[in-house]
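# nightly structure sweep
# worker-07 picked up a monomer target from the shared queue
# config: single-sequence mode, recycle default, output format = structure tokens
# input follows
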Amino acid sequence: MLLFEILLNATSVFNHANVRLPAGIDRVLRLLVVTPDMHRVHHSVEPRETNSNFGFNLPWWDRLFGTYRAQPEAATPR
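# output follows
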């Protein structure tokens, strides 16, 4: 239980971090964990974007339930 809580909190801190990963690394990591760039879409002021990317640990649930958005609509290309 302790290990689970440590991992859960570590991933939450990671995806809420104010960091920008190189695009290639971010693309690969999105297959395994929720990255800061992926999760920031969820904190948008746009309702369509706020209602997406709910996960803060595993990205598979958003892809499975159709709530995944790669980037916000107003995002500048990387």
